Amino acid sequence: MTRVFISGTHAVAEAADLADVKVIAAYPITPQTSIVETLARKVSSGELKAEMVPVESEHSAMSTVVGASLAGARAFTASSSQGLALMHEVLPYASGLRLPIVMAIANRALASPVSIFNDQQDSLSQRDSGWLQFYVKNAQEALDFILIAYRLAEDPRVLLPVMVCMDGFSISHTSEPVEIPSRELVREFLPAFKANYPHLDLEDPKVFNVMAFPDHFEEFQRDKHESSRNVLVITDEVYGDFNRLFGRQYGNVEYYQASDAEVVLVGMGSMMGTVRDVVDALRAAGQKVGMARVASYRPFPVSEIRSALKSARTIGVLDRDISFGAGGILYQDVVRSLYNESGPRPRAINFIVGLGGRDVSHRTIRTCFERLFLASDKEALGTEGELQWPDENEKLLKTWEVGKTYGN
Amino acid sequence: MQIEVRFHGFGGEGVVRASEILGQAAVKCGKWAQSFPYFGTEIRGAAVKAFTRVGDAPINARCFIYEPDILVVTNQSLLEDKEVLKGLKDESKLILNAPEPVALDVPGKVYTINATKIGYEIFKKPIVNTIMLGALIKLTDMVPLEALKEVINEEFSKNLAELNIEAITIGYETIANKEG
Questions:
Q1: Number of domains within chain B
Q2: Could you give the ipTM of this predicted complex?
Q3: CATH number, position B25
Q4: I want to staple B4 with a disulfide (CB 3.0 to 4.6 A). Which of A255, A357, B61, B65 is the partner?
């Protein structure tokens, strides 16, 4: 095991190499590009024995890995933002055909306006594609979860494709120490690939992508749903094996100081590291605060979130995304998890933060905790209400007359 | 214990590379570190920021550095942007590339080094990043000079490594451990 100082994109490329992927197809897009650049170098030098397919679009990249996976190869791709959006049409084929493809996402805002910077709108917009989704907090986790993703995707109880999502720039382009495991240990955790699902075979021809009539279709969907839920059952075993071999323990939710906390901030991705710092500072000042970082977004760990949060007085959900006209996307999942709880439920506030790369600073997080304490003491939520934008620039909103009707 | 460094430069001046080298040297010494850039799109000549955190424990923060312990400015003309000097504290150190000492009304200590002149002497070009890194570690003890040299030997081709090691050494020796 060696400890190196590398970026998130580099860590992901090392992971794909360690997973011994056989087909890589990708189209460049910032901030993903350096993942496949690194892999292209490895393939070209012969260090990684894989087929690198330079395609003309992300739609073709996804189509290529679907084909490769159907042919029985371990396949990998990566994308971001509009590139992922262009894959949209093909994503449900990958999940519907039950292909264990792994894709790294370097999260980037969706246009328009154009932004190369980070939020999680791109992958959360693909929520219902049938893919599993994991959100990591740093480069080490990005590497580790590519390996975990293949192990889960290829499990006969699952057989679904996985997106491993890391925040653009704040993980993808941040260098930090990363432990690179040995190939021998990785092989023990993730055995050499042998397609364990129906795949192309000249000796045994099959038809793929069949038509399902109304008397069959629903059961296909139900099966995908149940297989996705199976992940929550097998992750104990998979994370346990990972910890035994590599000495890092993961969970579907990461908690910090949450068990006795009065107020808890829930969120996903790299900003939760900053939340952890603020929790330390506020705890030192005697305030009972905690955090819960959702690592497995699909499947969503409903029961786990319910038991972890039900005794808090107030929870805040940080969303680095916005479902226009409704609110944060993660918020809907978290609040829904608490709804059928008997007895008192915590009050909940949704904070929209960090869109298009806006920095989520210690001050942002302190503001969120302050507002949660204020809300705890009120009879009802104040004028700020349930959905808040703690870092919004009021001057810009006024200048641009945001929300005003145009014309006539 | 965590030290936070913010670099300001123009695209192509190598502040991103400098922040990476610093982080890498710290990790070599068994410390924890984090380096990351901020730029619009990668254009030569545009203002660029880079950040490095170095600590004895894993680093949790994932945001910009607003109150740097060390501020490195590779070009005096960057000071026209008032944002550049923001966040300096009484304990902060500002390392500025300028031909002669500049009077600045800021908290903390100000050190100037004529890195452009040294750069022309060593590289025949205005390359200043490794010169200023040498100055930085002299003023902070963040990493030993040897660790920095080791990283440069690994990261650069032989010829460039030799020149950059010279640059670091001269930066290290030139910056007087006093203000001015």
A1: 1
A2: 0.93
A3: 3.40.920.10
A4: B65
